[in-house]
């Protein structure tokens, strides 16, 4: 075992439609966040997956 950790994948669900607030109806990311995803570090991606996107999906602002 080499201690390899897989890259954090995209939260894309394949819906890919921005709503009136500018957030994707599938993954709850903004267009800018979607475009930047490949350049973000794993810590930032993980924060989005664990905090930001679930909060948006639930209809509240992330901490």
Task: Pick out its properties.
63 residues; mainly alpha; 2 helices
> How does the overall form come out from the CA principal axes?
globular
The average pLDDT score comes to 89
Number of helices: 2
Number of extended strands: 0
Biggest sheet architecture: none
The helix fraction, in percent, is 25-40%
Report strand %: under 5%
Count up the domains.
1
Rg over CA atoms: 13 Å
Weakly predicted, low-confidence segments? none
Helix-strand sequence: HH
Which structural class should the secondary elements be placed in?
mainly alpha
Separation of the first and last Cα atoms: 36 Å
What is this structure's SSE topology?
Elements: H1 31-36, H2 42-57
How would you sum up this structure in a few lines?
This protein has helices at 31-36, 42-57. It is an all-alpha fold.
Can you describe what's shown?
The chain is mostly helical. It has one domain. Helices cover 35% and strands 0% of the residues. It contains 2 helices and no strands. The longest helix has 16 residues.
């Amino acid at each position: 075992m080499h201690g390899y950790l897989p890259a954090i994948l995209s939260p894309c669900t394949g819906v890919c439609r921005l709503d009136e607030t500018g957030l994707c109806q599938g993954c709850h990311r903004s267009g800018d966040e979607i475009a930047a995803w490949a350049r973000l570090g794993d810590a930032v991606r993980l924060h989005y997956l664990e905090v930001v996107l679930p909060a948006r999906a639930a209809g509240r602002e992330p901490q």
